[in-house]
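Hi D.,

Good news: the full-assembly prediction came through. Inputs first.
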Amino acid sequence: DGGITQSPKYLFRKEGQNVTLSCEQNLNHDAMYWYRQDPGQGLRLIYYSQIVNDFQKGDIAEGYSVSREKKESFPLTVTSAQKNPTAFYLCASSMGIRDRNPLHFGNGTRLTVT
Amino acid sequence: GESVGLHLPTLSVQEGDNSIINCAYSNSASDYFIWYKQESGKGPQFIIDIRSNMDKRQGQRVTVLLNKTVKHLSLQIAATQPGDSAVYFCAEGYYGQNFVFGPGTRLSVLP
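Then the structure:
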């Protein structure tokens, strides 16, 4: 089945450590996105990518970094500079960038930093 | 499970009744809208979408209504089932802009 795979489902880190969240898609979508979800809030965009080797900052990019070396993969690194990293992180993809096509989401990674 | 549903408005309905979930969107320029369903511990799942040239669109047991005059979107679920229990949220967008997501409503189906 086509879809988006995020791993791991749960991740625990100590404060001050960088951590990388994996996102892989086999939908052949050009666009990929990372969102952060906090209780009681709408999804907030961290980074997005339209094509390989290109990506743009979203609304809350500070403390995060991404890469897009392959069409299928869009890993997110949460750096020690992110002040409040504990959250639920969602990866998504779509056929086109910022157009009238729905986003397809993975099942998320719950990151807890202590 | 995930705590993403904390502090959200909750709609409780009896199994078999119809559910209506509302969403007020913010940008009058938005011309594409999506409803998502999110179960505990999972990612959002696409339910139905609608473009601004339509007022109503129907899917399997779901109907989305769009009122552009008051910038309001609703999702109607017919014959609500226990499996419909989840957080539902809307997204608005237009060409060239990233989607804006609402915080969601928790639907609780009572036996």
